[in-house]
Amino acid sequence: MRTLGLDVGTKTIGVAVSDAMGWTAQGLETIRVEENQTEQAIPRLKELIHTYEVDKLVVGLPKNMNGTIGPRGEACLQFAEQLKEALGLEVIMWDERLSTMAAERVLLEADVSRKKRKKVIDKMAAVMILQGFLDSKGK
To answer: Which segments in the chain show pLDDT lower than 70?
Structure first.
């Protein structure tokens, strides 16, 4: 079974999926939602879960640098609860501090244009979140 990684923003949700062995994360897509209406993504997530035979979700938890959870983190926790109810799968929260910055750095090093970076940054951040989780399980 595979794991789905999510980078939850106010208007987009980056989605990544693991390989069947749980070793690597690949970016799938960015789901667009109306501002702060993340539950609109649940039908599409159900389709992806069915297609990729997913048995758990890893949701990025954006903590403040001092480890506290701010409004964005609270919104992610609330969305995680909605996912548990709607999908009946295990949902794991993963500290995603700096994942978007790391994704931006990777894309800059790959010389991806600003326009293209904007389109893929959330998906890339989801890959970083999921890969961090997968790597931690291997240790």
So the answer is: 98-102, 117, 139
Domain total in the chain? 1
For residue 17, give its domain range. Answer: 2-137
Q: What would you report as the CA-atom Rg of the chain, rounded to the nearest whole angstrom?
A: 14
Which of 58, 37, 32, 50 shows the shortest CA–CA distance to 129? 58
Q: What is the DSSP string of 92-111?
A: EEEE-TTHHHHHHHHHHHTT
Q: Which amino acid type is present at position 53? A: E
* Residue that the structure tokens 């506290």 belong to: 68
Measuring CA to CA, which residue among 81, 120, 123, 125 is closest to residue 102?
Answer: 125
CATH number for the domain that contains residue 49: 3.30.420.140
Class of residue 138 by CB neighbours under 10 A (exposed 0-12, middle 13-18, buried 19+):
exposed
Residues 126, 7: contact at Cβ < 8 Å? yes
